[in-house]
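From the shared-data thread, chain only:
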Amino acid sequence: MARNHNLSIKGDKRGPITLSISGSMTLESIDTMMPQILSVFDEFLPTRVIVDLAGIEYMDSAGALLLLRIEDDAAQKAIPFSIEQMSEKARNILKLVNRQALTAPPLNLPEKRMLLLEQVGERSLDILGDIARSITFFGTLISEIFTSLLRPSTVRWGAVLNYMKKAGVDCLPILGLISFLLGLIMAFMSSLQLKQFGANIYVASLVGLAMVRELGPIITSILVAGRSGSAFAAEIGTMKVNEEVDALVIMGFDPVRFLAIPKVFAAMIVVPILTLFSDLFAIFGGLLVGVLGLEITPYTYLHQTAKSFDSFDIVAGTVKSIVFAILIAGIGCQRGFEVRGSAEAVGNATTSAVVSSLFLIIVTDSMFAIILNYIR
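Structure, as tokens:
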């Protein structure tokens, strides 16, 4: 397929002229071809313009637009215009161009103004619809989790290991640093008050109990939601935009089982481990303050820390972290599946995944606090 072009002009001034175009009329050739053709009207002052396309081998939509431009210029100068020997392919390309859309003014939709009450009502309906979709998705997700546990051979364990590395191993440095600083700050701030009563030893209890019961699972979940939950939404959202999810459906794969289950299983495995990792680093941060600032021996500090919580607190923190993991991965996948449109929709889904995850983590932790208080 030739990409070059050739233009020849036949005719006399103030008479009919024929523009013979051969080769290709494409976007690449239009920049050089258009000035030559349009200058014909001023140089020849023709009484009629005929475009001969007998030698055209290839024409794209840019070439079709050039023909329409020649016709419009001829019409403005009241010069008869015609096209001769146009191939069927070129004619079909020309038919694809919507001439009315080229000259139609932009569609400016009137701005829709709503009263405050209408805005509140519309926003409320959006929230209720979002809650209904989330409940439906999580129902499907939990069903798929139980099915996968009963039939582990159907799970893509290779993908699970890959997501475990991304959500777990890659998260260790930043989580360790944040937890260490958190434990150090908690120990330092609490010591300012406890020293006045000679109760320095209870700094260890405060740091250990707070981290194992509450702060360890929450800090870990917030960090995983920011890193991995948003990544899950962006990955699936991009696949939706590229119609890869539709292709999976056509090939007979269940998108939830194929895409969501490996991410959820990976999160369920790594988040509890990361929570214990966070607890240890926070306790180490508090130990540093206790040894260097409060003159407590390491053995005494660790012994007091171990006395501050029991196995129930560790199990409760682990169960909470597993539930948080399901929420983070589930919300990330759901927001990804809801993407419609362009890259902007992927960005919105990513933001929504993080915000929704943080909201659900706080709400769920509050429910755990009430339930565990009655169970204990």
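The mean pLDDT is 86.
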